[in-house]
Structure prediction request, 182 residues.
Amino acid sequence: MAVHSASKKVAAVAMFGALGNVLALFSTVLGNIHPQIAVDLSHIATVFSAYMLGPIDAALVGAIISLVPFIRFGLLGGLGPLAGSLIFPGKALTGLFTGLLAKKTSHPFLALLVGYIPESLFTWASFKLWIPVIAPQVSGWITDAVVYGILIKAWIEILLIGAASEVLLPRVKDMIPYGLVD
Prediction:
């Protein structure tokens, strides 16, 4: 389904961005595992936007839903604003690739599972390669246990979000007001 007018597209991106940030806010507060590791269910909005809006808009939603994790782990957490800003392109990658795959498969579980691989690689590279260079003051606590803890937790989330999306996405599409998403 494609959104036809620019204003409808902006409204839909804003709606999914808001949904993702609300989900991130509640899940990171309720699912705090470690000072720098928390459950984050914001990619539910990414999957929905990938299937309802397309890859470019889903990438934008991915960047928007990064706001709460950026504040939580960048501004208020140990990463700081510079290293924390790497969250934005990472989540946008999942939106882009899941959106591209949504054009090829009607199964959100599969699209998200494969679409998350670039963000996962980007996350690993951020912690192991880039953050030690751009924010060396935080690299001391970024141990392999933290990096792989983040990645394992993220893959579990992706599996759960993908499975939930298989059930929820068709129902959400039916509930969207006529005309917002055509």
DSSP finds nine helices and two strands in the chain.
